Predict the structure.
Amino acid sequence: MILAIETSCDETAAAVITDDGGIVSNIVASQSELHARYGGVVPEIAARRHLELVSPVVGEALAGTSLDAIDRIAVTQGPGLVGALLVGLAAAKGLAWSRGLPLVPVDHLHGHVSSLYLQPDPVEPPFLCLLASGGHTLLLDVQDHARFRVLGSTLDDAAGEAFDKGARLLGLGYPGGAALDRLAAEGDAGAYDFPVAKVSGLDFSFSGVKTALLYAVRGTDVEERRADLAASYQRAIVRALVDRTREAAAQIGAEQIAIVGGVAANSELRAALPEAKAAPLALCTDNAAMIASAARFVAAAPDPLRLDAYAVA
């Protein structure tokens, strides 16, 4: 069995999975309320909170499992907030060293893709994967469990970041993606025509649609039109994601499409890509089960105590 720790941003997470992808436990302690007053994640505060939470979260993940039954320790090495990542790395190093266990460093993005490989309904490569989260928007050609090829990425804001910033403009607070999704269900998605830049290749750009919403908010009675603004803004972002995903699938001849990451929980995106295999809702946002899943296909570090975190992929 594999014990994994994930602390790349503002969720302190630990999980235990079996080597065939069965989830034994998957514990996530969110810091959303802590950061809400600042309108976004404060890295230093996140790191300090991880220090407080990592031991009890790991203990809860192991509540039904003896540490003697663990064969490997996995941990997110990056990308993410370096201070936050270092807390998870230190905890994982300590556990691995004290028990004489292999330590497997996992790339956070590989973790998101690997959420698709967990039971009870694993997806088998090859497939085209849209990875959309608060920090990343990527189109990936996944040919096997261990690696992928980047086909396109965002040139500015990630889709999840655009949702959160849009929610802030509409007075919905932080984190705002889920709140905007709920509000959009009450509005008219055709009320406003928000443009999304069409850039070359298979890349994305969401800074323009965010600016368009800003100008619309300044010239509108937001209280009266908030739901219509949310619905139209969400429709523009989802349309851009769906159109580019299908374009990429056609280019590489992909027979399967999958979506992962926090934005994969968006109800309109799921409805607009009904043919896509979507990660279960509980595994869309940052969690440790996906890190443990990736560790099944990654080699252990030859010198684990020298592992360091990295901020950018």
In short: The chain has a mean pLDDT of 96. The two ends are 27 Å apart (CA to CA). The longest strand covers residues 23-30. The chain is about 40% helix and 20% strand.
